[in-house]
Write a structure and sequence with these properties.
The complex is a heterodimer. By secondary structure, chain A is mostly beta strands. Chain A has 1 helix and 23 strands. In chain A, the strands form 4 sheets. In chain A, strands 1-2-3-8-9-10-11-12-13-16-17-18-19-21-22-23 form a 16-stranded antiparallel β-barrel. In chain A, strands 15-14-20 form a 3-stranded mixed β-sheet, with no helix packed on it. The two termini of chain A are 25 Å apart. By secondary structure, chain B is mainly alpha-helical. Helix content of chain B is 46%, strand content 0%. The longest helix of chain B is centred in the N-terminal third of the chain and has 19 residues. Chain B is flat. Chain B starts with a helix and ends in a 17-residue tail after the last helix. The relative contact order of chain B is 0.08. The chains are: A mainly beta, B mainly alpha. At the A-B interface, helix 1, strand 1, strand 2, strand 8 and strand 9 of A face helix 1 and helix 2 of B.
Chain lengths: 432, 71
């Protein structure tokens, strides 16, 4: 005799969904009349201003509920990236020549322009699977594997999460652990830290063909139902990455202390002096995340905040709000705002100064700079008898500050120019 | 760093204690069960991937992860 009814996929997914995220289900989903399968799909277009990064991406998830508590979820992501990415060098008032990362060929950047490497081209395939099941009377366990591959990068990971309900399921506590091992195979080889960029065909600044890094993440948290309308989730996470954490394509320009002009490579390469960056070989991050959700009679509101701190000297705050306007039984609008701010890494340098001793580490990656970012977006969703169609548009703007402050001719350039991006996403989810 | 760990654990413990006395009965959870009160996993994963590749922070809600050469 079968005591357990077949669980609808909608009901199972609160658990499975959050297993994938390593977070908690907000609440149990009501049963519906759909079958045990759910397919979610999204087509994403991401484009930065100018000739910078563009990404066309497909994200899909297929879930199957074996019974009331057992769910398998499979994820597939395909990314197609093109465009140009800042090399880390600063503009100059003369034409600059750079060697391509492959070491084969070179490109020129006009005077006054931020040097961008226009060979940015990659395809990424990522797969993940998560199995969720009961574990004892009031506990659940989920286990997952993930893998992704790019032209110069391979990722393999495992994760697990255990959660337990207390207080008549008003309180859920969870613990999660993830481990990943990644391999980096930089195009043209692994650059030697602080080695000078060489002319095309000269590989003396490279040593070896690949590097690895390990990442361990731990999560602990709880979700508490506060009232009939509201709940609170709080997570603490601790992550440690060790190994090769350097960006192999990122360079720093060495400038004259008075004029601010790039100095010529003293070794006579014919190029200006640009050094490959160097980062510490470990990074420990901690974050505290809290989310509050509130259900109005018709609409709902979600507010969250994250505080992050790491031993690279970066402290960041992220605040986000989503309001779900259920303006009819089948249609909804969801405005979204997000604000992000971070302090610079201790070793962030927009450029290096000739004659000064080299620091232990230095990176010109603007993602490690003192930075603010704002996102505003709107999602429209329409439910049909078979599924849900959605359209999401977001606008993202990032502004950063150089460090050290510009000197000489550099004062006339925007060394960390603002970056804006548009994100458009079409989604369709259905049960069967 | 140690202060943050301690602060986080204290905050979580205090919140759990404060909230622990609340009991909303299963039949009173109709609003919590609504679809719009659940996180949208696909949207969140897409957002996490974008921000991971453009900012120095990641994770918080879930694993900081990565699995991408973009950062």
């Amino acid at each position: 005799m079968q005591l357990k009814r077949k669980r609808s996929i909608g009901e199972s997914l609160a658990t499975a969904t959050c297993s994938l995220l390593g977070a908690l289900p907000a609440a149990r989903v009501q049963a519906d009349e759909s079958g045990p399968w759910q397919a979610e799909s999204a087509l994403l277009y991401y484009a930065e201003d100018g000739d910078r990064v563009r990404d066309i991406s497909f994200d899909g998830a297929l879930s199957y509920a074996f019974d009331e508590d057992r769910t398998l979820r499979l994820n597939l992501t395909l990314d197609s990236l093109t465009g140009a990415s800042p090399s880390g060098a600063v503009p100059a008032n003369t034409v600059q020549t750079f060697t391509r990362p492959s070491g084969q060929g070179s490109y020129q950047v006009p005077a006054g322009e931020l040097p961008l490497d226009d060979t940015f081209l990659d395809t990424r395939v990522a797969l993940a699977a998560t199995w969720s099941q009961p574990f004892g009377e009031s506990s659940r366990l989920s286990l997952g594997v993930s893998g992704s591959t790019e032209y110069d990068y391979l990722h393999l990971g495992v994760n697990g999460r255990w959660e337990r309900d207390f207080n008549q399921r008003n309180t859920t506590v969870f613990v999660g652990l993830a481990y990943a091992q990644d391999q980096i195979d930089p195009v043209g080889g692994v650059p030697i830290s602080f080695a000078a960029m060489q002319e095309a065909g000269d590989s003396s600044s490279k040593d070896g063909s690949n590097e690895t890094k390990d990442v361990i993440d731990g999560l602990i948290g709880f979700t508490q139902i506060l009232s009939r309308r509201s709940l609170l989730s709080v997570n603490y996470s601790y992550g440690r990455a060790s190994g090769y954490l350097t960006d192999p394509y990122r360079i720093l320009t060495v400038v004259d202390p008075l004029s601010g002009q790039p100095v010529a490579d003293p070794a006579g390469s014919g190029l200006n002096l640009h050094l490959y960056e160097s980062r510490p070989d470990s990074r420990t991050k901690q974050s505290l995340f809290a989310e509050w959700r509130y259900a109005f009679d018709r609409d709902s509101l979600a507010l969250n905040y994250r505080l992050m701190h790491d031993d690279w000297g970066i402290t960041s705050s992220t605040a986000e709000a989503r309001y779900r306007l259920n303006w009819s039984a089948s249609d909804y609008l969801e405005p979204h705002v997000r604000y992000y701010t971070q302090s610079a890494a201790d070793f962030y340098r927009t450029y290096l100064v000739d004659g000064e001793p080299l620091p232990a580490n230095a990176s010109s990656d603007s993602r490690l700079a003192d930075m603010d970012a704002v996102t505003v977006g709107l999602k429209y969703g329409r439910r049909t008898r078979h599924g849900e169609f959605s359209l999401r548009l977001e606008y993202y703007r990032q502004t950063g500050n150089p460090d050290p402050a510009p000197i000489g001719v550099l004062t006339g350039f925007d060394l960390v120019p603002p970056m804006t991006a548009v994100i458009a996403q079409v989604g369709y989810t259905f049960n069967f | 760093m140690r202060g943050m760990i301690l602060g986080s654990l204290l905050l979580m413990g205090a919140a759990a204690l404060l909230c622990g006395c609340t009991t909303v009965k299963p039949w009173e959870r109709d609003l919590h069960a609504r679809e719009d009160m659940q996180p949208n996993a696909l949207d969140l994963a897409i957002d996490d991937h974008i921000y991971f590749s453009k900012e120095a922070s990641s994770g918080g809600r879930g694993f900081a992860g990565g699995g991408c050469g973009c950062n």
